Amino acid sequence: MKYLCLAYYDVPKYEATPPAEFEAMVAQCAAYDKKLKASGRLFAHGSLGAPKDTRNLLPRSGKAIVTDGPYIETKEQVGGWFIIEAKDMDDALEVAKNHPAANMGEQMGWGIEVRSADFFESF
Predict the structure, then answer these.
(1) Are 84 and 95 in contact (CB under 8 A)?
(2) What's the count of helices (H) and strands (E) in the chain, helices before strands?
(3) What's the longest Cα–Cα distance across the chain?
(4) Cα–Cα distance between 19 and 13 in angstroms, integer?
(5) Are 92 and 101 in contact (CB under 8 A)?
(6) Do 14 and 76 form a contact (C-beta atoms < 8 A)?
(7) What distance in Å separates the CA atoms of residue 17 and residue 30, rounded to the nearest whole number?
(8) Nearest Cα to 99, choosing from 1, 3, 16, 19?
(9) Residues 1, 85: contact at Cβ < 8 Å?
(10) Rounded CA gap, 46 and 57, in Å?
(11) What integer pLDDT is reported at residue 93 of this predicted model?
């Protein structure tokens, strides 16, 4: 079964992190992603643009209206994601908890949400 892992961060804390410190953490993420890919458990991963660059399309009176910013107003924002193969939620949590975002970056408010992908189709 596929699981979507959403990597969150706290925007003000993220922006206050020195670039060298951030790059060191990202390098550890890349190394873990490479290990997961080699194991055949990583299907896709990516980073998202800044919340300030986000736009939303919302249905209003039968038309799509464009609004600024993330759809949900929250302190934490999704900054990246990865899709893994796991036998069940416990297995998915085991894989995700070894990701650097689950073990470091506390000063940036890093965290990972793990959700089952009940429907998954690859093109």
Answers:
(1) yes
(2) 4, 6
(3) 48
(4) 12
(5) no
(6) no
(7) 18
(8) 3
(9) yes
(10) 21
(11) 97
DSSP H or E segment with residue 26: helix 19-39
Instruction: Let me know if 1 is exposed, middle or buried by CB neighbors in 10 A (0-12, 13-18, 19+).
Output: middle
The residue type of 103 is: N
- The full length of the chain comes to 123
- Report pLDDT digits (tens) over 10-29: 989 988 999 999 899 889 99
pLDDT for position 72: 72
Other C-beta atoms lying within 10 Å of the C-beta of residue 86: 19
9 has a pLDDT exceeding 80: yes
* CA atoms of 17 and 25, how far apart (whole Å): 11
Rounded Cα distance, 70 and 48, in Å: 11
Instruction: Please report, for residues 22, 80, 106, the alpha-carbon distance to residue 83 in angstroms, rounded to integers and kept in the order given.
Output: 23, 11, 22
Task: Take residue 94 and report the two structure tokens written for it.
Answer: 């085991």
Residue 65: pLDDT band (50, 70, 90) is very high
